[in-house]
Amino acid sequence: MKTLILKYAFEYLTGEPVYIDNAPNGLSCNCICPECGKQMIAIQGKSENHREWHFRHSEETNCKGGQETAIHKLAKQIIVDNSQIEIPGDTLNYSETRQEEKFQSVIPDVTVIANGRNVFFEIEVTNPVDNFKEAFYKNGKYKSVKIDLTNISQDTTPEKLKEIVLQQTNNKKLIFWDTTWSKLTLFCKENPKTALIIGIGVYLIIRRVWKIITK
Ligand SMILES: [Zn+2]
Question: Does residue 195 sit in the same domain as residue 117?
Answer without folding.
Answer: no
